[in-house]
């Protein structure tokens, strides 16, 4: 079976063709980062319009690269939510219409299920069950995963998502949007031991996160730092290092707790922040210590992409799920309300 996958929940137009026997046949991505950089964040209306401009040419390119005709497509999957409603509507309208025109089922995919299943695209895919740490720009959560659609949210952020905290702190350091990867790059030049950021909500039981305090701590640290001298860049790098270390440490503590609570030995880390090098190496060390295994998507599939939507859509298509013509985009959609397949 072959499926077209469409992702338009935020500021990336991602399109992919996935075949359940041959794997990923093509994968196209257009990032709107430059469009939003001047505003320091995603402008929803501009995002929707840019998706409208890019979606059809990208679908044509993905179909061509996959050497696939519409008659060979067995279903069309698109991100139905959560995300920006205008952006979601573009992918939903185009996806639902294509499915209608091609007379195949449409499948509505939950964006975070897409992230969660992205490591399944790799050769060393994890087996169920596992604990998933989902860390993106919009969400941070720990999920107990027994199978596809069998999700128990163990904890989530009560305020900013991890990626959001990276982006906001990066902005305070004068870095462009989205600042997460730029902050991580700056942190590489930073030295340990100059600043000590808090590890929020680690001193009490539970698996929820809170990252907004770290951003405030960063704002105060930057305000109190003397950034007028020749060493300003080094000071900023040291602050970036300490911030990143605090986020990573906090995530490590919570993952360790989640693994202990569930008795599981497999950990999956996905979402944009899972591209972070420090997070990846520290988690690897943790899982070696715990004699368990950690799985990530490859870097291209950590941040938003069409491949993960095509993969998740294929699993639901094979289970017989189809979306009615009257289906609507779901800007808010709790992960644990999905049906098990
Ligand atoms: O999953 P994603 O592409 O979009 C959402 O679903 O939100 O995640 C984007 C987030 C942004 O906040 C971005 O700054 C962050 O992931 N990010 C990183 C890194 N790469 C992307 N954060 C820290 N280190 C990175 N290397
Ligand atoms: Zn995402």
From TrEMBL:
| Residues given in the record as substrate binding sites | 134-138, 167, 180, 276
Catalytic activity entry = L-threonylcarbamoyladenylate + adenosine(37) in tRNA = N(6)-L-threonylcarbamoyladenosine(37) in tRNA + AMP + H(+)
Entry keyword Acyltransferase: yes
* Subcellular compartments: Cytoplasm
| Highest rank taxon of the organism | Bacteria
Domain Gcp-like, residue spans: 24-311
Q: What is its EC number?
A: 2.3.1.234
Main location group: cytoplasm
Provide the binding site for Fe cation: 111, 115, 304
Q: Which family does it belong to?
A: Belongs to the KAE1 / TsaD family.
State which residue ranges cross the membrane. Answer: none
From the Swiss-Prot or TrEMBL record, give the protein name.
tRNA N6-adenosine threonylcarbamoyltransferase
Q: How is the cofactor bound?
A: Binds 1 Fe(2+) ion per subunit.
Any one Gene Ontology cellular component term annotated for this protein = cytoplasm
One GO molecular-function entry? iron ion binding
Q: What is this enzyme's class at the first EC digit? A: transferase
Organism of derivation = Alteromonas portus
The cofactors required by this protein are: Fe(2+)
Which InterPro entries does this UniProt record tie to the protein? ATPase_NBD, Gcp-like_dom, KAE1/TsaD, Peptidase_M22_CS, TsaD
